[in-house]
Target: ABC transporter
Amino acid sequence: MISVQNLTKRYGAYTAVDDVSFNVRPGAVTGFLGPNGAGKSTCMRMMCSLTPPTSGTATVLDRPYSSLPNPGRHVGVLLDASAQHAGRTGREILTLGAMVMGIDRSRVDEMLDLVGLSESEATRRVRNYSLGMRQRLGIAHALLGDPQVLILDEPANGLDPAGIRWMRGLLRGYADEGGTVLLSSHLLHEVEVVADELVVIGRGRIVAQGTKAELMAATGTTVRTTDDAAFAGLLEGAGLEVKAASTGLTVQAEPQQIGELAARHQVVLIELRTAGSAGLEDMFLELTADDAREEVAA
Ligand SMILES: Nc1ncnc2c1ncn2[C@@H]1O[C@H](COP(=O)(O)OP(=O)(O)OP(=O)(O)O)[C@@H](O)[C@H]1O
Model:
């Protein structure tokens, strides 16, 4: 279990993380989502006692990370895959980790095998690793101490599609066995497939959080008709909230209610479904629009 309470980090006059609170429960994958610069890494660094908060608290397994005895045995952390010593081989890095944590060195081979680093790759210096190989090594290092909690900052960066699928399977299995996983990304699709819970951050503040099912249900219904503009008028006339979507309309109502209204007015429906993941993406972009660098540049 990870618990973050009223966490705030200021750098001079700039507030990078602003009064953030959320819990990450065992047995689930929690996706920590936000655009570039939203404050995800700063939050994770505070959870791992690497950055002191200006105010608020972060605990992992009911204690600050810094007061966990032998933390690698409890919490696996991957914050920056490129932070490993470039002059060491992957095997050396894992062996040193095993020695520091006091675990059997046989675990090194198990982890290399688990993350798919071959013997010849494991004996290559990290400076010659691709970003995907560094991520795999970072995941192996995070899992080395057989921890109950994983804190992973953008672990899918640099992984190819097969690698991303492999990582999702790994995290799903880990959570299904009771592990706690916090996984950050700036890409909704990357975490949506595997996450049970989502915490969305924008400009240092939490803008949405809940189970994926709850957030999806809140995104409403997508409807398309032969005349969307006219149907939007009918929906609004019935007191429903309507927005133009990428295709058709998004309505804050159940599909049945919309279908009944269409039937009463003899409107031809082309599409009627819960907005689902497209709706989640619209919501994510809308909630974090203030942060979007493309808009700033425009
Ligand atoms: N040491 C620091 N000094 C000053 N500002 C900082 C420092 N560390 C982070 N920031 C600022 O805090 C904000 C949040 O950064 P952070 O790295 O937490 O975002 P992020 O959500 O992880 O982004 P990304 O997806 O791009 O990694 C950014 O505007 C960043 O420039």
